[in-house]
User: Fold this.
Amino acid sequence: MTRKLAFILIIATLFLSGCYSKFYDFLFYDRELHGIQISGQLTAIDIIDFRLQSLTKDIEIPENQFSGYEVIAHPALTDKNKELLDLKVRSYFADTGKSLKVVCYIVNTAKKATRSFFKRSEFVLVEMSIAIYDENNKLLDFGTSLSSLEHKPMGSVKYEINDLFEKAIRNAVYQCFDEFKSINKTVTLGRAFRYSVVKKED
Assistant:
């Protein structure tokens, strides 16, 4: 009986570690439908949050992990989030040609964590618009996106929800660039996994 129980525990551990490995790949590797490169030198990236500052705050997960809860917050972008957004936007420019400027408008963000006796879940949302202007401040193109992700975590909710939020930011930026029609861009179809600009810390 003891051997049978040990065997079941080993199988369960392998299964769970395999599931988390897939989630890890999902979080830190970006599969993009199109590879996008825009001809132009990016001279500036401005990030404008449309929301009232008094209404934005980060999520607070209850310390008592054994009781049920449902918490939701609309966080402002942290310095790390802004750096991520900046890097992601820059990755789509060839850095040659005419001078261009990008303005990112943050329309909405959300983090939601729930826990009951039987399950836990986390949800994130990033809604934004991105505009590209030439050196004379003429609008060249404009895109909008809404990226939402949901996950049922095995470990720490707070840690994974922040990683999930960063994934939603990257997705939202990509969706805006994929939507651009007027701006001159090179599009490569069927792109394979491309390493994300964000790497897991050791």
About this structure: Residues 107 and 194 are 27 Å apart (CA to CA). DSSP finds three helices and nine strands in the chain.
